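in:
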């Protein structure tokens, strides 16, 4: 029993001794120190010094334990706060003596040394053991016996290029084992080895980060040198450095700008590009006149240019040009893109009076009603709702009943020329119509803005369909060109009544000669003539100009005057009085009936979804008086303003007959004015119709159709469509729209009209007058789009002060 007690006590004592020993030697978190792979390196310098460096020592990934074993742990964790940074114990022994030093990094400059030399290096780290006492951890020893070798410095040449540095060198009288290339580390000012080769040349890639060579900054050039090297047992001996190769950042750059455009948020774009050779960068933007300078940027290591929020659907071309000091172009790249579609900040107009709600929900509180035609700015879209500001209140309207300004929504996917706003192109085939052709049409007064751009109102659901048609055309290299969208009802009635009043008159013609018969210049507008009298006619007022007196006179008054003169002459026995004009002073031609060989067309006010004329009482238009023809000139004398070329007088001496607007338009009754113009209401008045054609994206030339657009005659009939007109029809009808059989250019969205139950229309024209917003803030516009600046404006009884850019001061 006593023996067992003694043995147990001895065992316990032994275990306690082992535990105490382990506690003394064990450092929590400590680890064995091991050197990285590689040899000791000695680099001889021309000034008699030498640079000595060796592989760095790090804690191993196996932590020490009490039983002498180990457990895996990350190297970084093993080298944590429980041990001090690694130190290096150096022992250098040469013929000149013995030196021992302690260094805190694996690099040292030797100022006094001789070869041969023995080098011993041991890594040391300190830490506390389990007893709280400081202990040292030692690595295994690195040792090398360096022999003397006579090494010379090579002569090096560096050739920089895009992303690379080519080095070559020569060395006379020696055949070393290999060469080592060193690059200066800007962080600590030490040359570090970056490559090794046995050849006398090498090409090194230069990267912006993480490569063999790192692209230098503009302040500090890349510095590279070459050393001859020999391999010994456990060491590498490098001879003196070659001449220093210095390379500027610019010399290592290429010519690839790698220009890209990024959309960082809806319609907000940023341009980014890489630096290249050159001393500056020009950012240019393409417009109708060519490239224009947007900004100049100085040298930098990265370029990012914020374009801000761009217009919905707008098309942009940007170019970055790298230039040298003397302005020579070194490289350039373009970025071309179309902005995404988004109605934010677009101008809208309710097509009819609209309820105004506090939230995007008809069950929310009502804020009142917004009159049709009121200019509003879209602040947000949610489902079928637009958030807008009206009379300093913020609320929601039904977007389906709002016309949106196409240039602000569809953008450059279409082009626009609303000719009715400045010079109407409505004609009867090639014959101008007084008070209409070349005139601004009533109701379009504010459609052309102060900057020359156009307002193109179009019902929002229809605009979405139009976009799909425009994108289909773009794939084929074409662009939709819009001549008219919304037409106010006042314009509809004006066009019909004014044209109807001239149907029985001889159609005015163009002359490309001056009064003396000389050809007009290319920049001169043709003269407008009355074919009956040969006198010039003014399209702005429809009056004729007496070539002898310069007096203006209407056709009706001229006919009455000539009748009076003829009657006076008859009373004096100089002739017989002509037959008196009809009681109304008009000469009426009965309308022929449609022929069997031509289609008869639906009236626009029916085909365009207009109201039945009976719903809106309208007096029948009265045709204008038809003047009697002037007396035939004496035989042998040419009649002033005689028949157009190709039309001869009858051989029996009777005066020639001139075609009336009615004859040209209707093909002698096979069509009617109502085939082309609605008398009361048209789909244009509801914002669901478009008049448009096709043009080439490259060059902008319009495609040739069977007639000009807005040609109010049977020449425009859809059954005469050529291939280009059929192509336009394909794009438009694919969206669900339908055309009008009498006009190849007209398409309307009856599907949308029926889906939302749109039955009313807008009588007056629209304008830009009202609040508009962008990312900078609110501005107030006049009716023609002019922004109020540097002033105070009163809106809805409240005064606002606006700055030099027109933004309301907070």
């Amino acid at each position: 029993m006593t023996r067992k007690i003694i043995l147990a006590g001895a065992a316990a004592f032994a275990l306690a001794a082992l535990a105490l020993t382990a506690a003394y030697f064990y450092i929590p978190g400590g680890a064995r120190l091991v050197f990285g792979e590689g040899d000791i390196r000695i680099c001889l310098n021309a000034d008699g010094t030498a640079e000595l460096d060796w592989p760095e020592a790090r804690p191993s990934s196996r932590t020490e334990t009490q039983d002498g074993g180990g457990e895996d742990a990350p190297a970084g964790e093993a080298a944590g706060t429980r041990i001090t940074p690694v130190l290096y114990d150096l022992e250098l022994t040469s013929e000149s003596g013995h030196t021992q030093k302690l260094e805190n990094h694996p690099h040292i400059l030797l100022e006094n040394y001789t070869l041969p030399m023995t080098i011993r290096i041991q890594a040391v780290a300190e830490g506390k053991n389990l007893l709280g006492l400081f202990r040292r951890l030692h690595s295994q020893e690195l040792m090398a016996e360096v022999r003397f070798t006579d090494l010379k410095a090579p002569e090096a040449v560096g050739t920089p290029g895009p992303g690379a540095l080519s080095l070559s060198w020569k060395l006379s009288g020696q055949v070393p084992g290999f060469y080592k290339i060193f690059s200066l580390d800007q962080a600590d000012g030490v040359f570090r080895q970056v490559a090794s080769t046995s050849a006398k040349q090498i090409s090194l890639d230069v990267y912006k980060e993480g490569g063999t060579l790192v692209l230098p900054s503009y302040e500090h050039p890349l510095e590279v040198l070459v050393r001859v090297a020999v391999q010994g047992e456990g060491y590498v001996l490098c001879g003196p450095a070659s001449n220093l190769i210095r390379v500027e950042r610019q010399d290592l750059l290429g010519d690839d700008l790698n220009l890209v455009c990024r959309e960082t948020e809806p319609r907000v774009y940023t341009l980014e590009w890489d630096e290249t050779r050159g001393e500056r960068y020009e950012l240019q933007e393409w417009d109708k006149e060519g490239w224009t300078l947007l900004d100049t940027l100085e040298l930098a290591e990265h370029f990012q240019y914020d374009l801000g929020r761009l217009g919905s659907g707008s098309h942009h071309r940007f170019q970055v040009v790298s230039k040298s000091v003397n302005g020579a172009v070194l490289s350039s790249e373009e970025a071309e893109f179309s902005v995404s579609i988004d109605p934010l900040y677009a101008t809208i107009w309710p097509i009819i009076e609209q309820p105004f709600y506090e939230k995007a929900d008809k069950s929310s509180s009502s804020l009142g009603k917004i009159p049709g035609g009121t200019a509003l700015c879209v602040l947000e879209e949610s489902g079928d709702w637009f958030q807008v500001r009206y009379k300093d209140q913020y609320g929601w309207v039904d977007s389906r009943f709002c016309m949106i300004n196409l240039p602000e929504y569809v953008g450059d996917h279409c082009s626009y020329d609303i000719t009715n706003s400045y010079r109407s192109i409505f004609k009867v085939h090639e014959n101008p119509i007084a008070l209409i052709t070349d005139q601004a049409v009533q109701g379009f007064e504010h459609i052309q803005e102060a900057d020359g751009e156009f307002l193109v109102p179009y019902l929002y659901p229809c605009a979405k369909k139009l976009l799909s048609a425009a994108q289909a055309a773009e794939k084929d290299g074409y662009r939709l060109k819009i001549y008219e969208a919304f037409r106010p009802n006042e314009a509809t009635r004006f066009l019909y009544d004014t044209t109807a009043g001239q149907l029985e008159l001889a159609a005015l013609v163009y002359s490309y000669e001056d009064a003396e018969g000389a050809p007009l210049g290319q920049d001169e507008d043709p003269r407008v003539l009355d074919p009956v009298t040969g006198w010039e006619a003014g399209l702005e007022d429809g009056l004729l100009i007496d070539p002898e007196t310069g007096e203006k006179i209407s056709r009706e008054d001229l006919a009455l005057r000539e009748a009076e003169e003829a009657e006076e002459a008859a009373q004096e026995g100089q002739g017989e009085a002509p037959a008196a004009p009809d009681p109304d002073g008009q000469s009426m031609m009965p309308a022929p009936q449609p022929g069997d060989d031509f289609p008869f067309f639906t009236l626009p006010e029916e085909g365009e979804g207009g109201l039945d004329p009976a719903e809106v009482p309208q007096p029948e238009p009265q045709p204008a008086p038809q003047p009697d023809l002037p007396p035939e000139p004496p035989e042998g004398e040419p009649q002033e303003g005689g028949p157009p070329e190709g039309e001869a007088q009858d051989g029996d001496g009777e005066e020639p007959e001139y075609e009336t607007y009615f004859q040209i338009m209707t093909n002698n009754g096979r069509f009617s004015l109502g085939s082309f113009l609605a008398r009361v209401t048209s789909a244009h008045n509801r914002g669901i119709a478009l008049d448009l054609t096709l043009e080439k994206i490259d060059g902008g030339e319009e495609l040739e159709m069977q007639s000009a657009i807005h040609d109010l005659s049977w020449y425009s009939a859809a059954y005469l469509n050529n291939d280009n007109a059929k192509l336009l029809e394909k794009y438009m009808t694919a969206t669900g729209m339908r055309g009008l059989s009498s006009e190849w250019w007209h398409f309307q969205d009856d599907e949308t009209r029926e889906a939302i139950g749109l039955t009313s229309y807008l009588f007056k024209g629209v304008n830009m007058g009202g609040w508009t917003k962008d990312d900078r803030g609110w501005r107030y516009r006049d009716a023609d789009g002019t922004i109020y600046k540097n002033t105070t404006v009163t809106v809805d009884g409240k005064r606002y002060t606006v700055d030099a850019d027109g933004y309301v001061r907070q």
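note: The longest strand covers residues 134-146.
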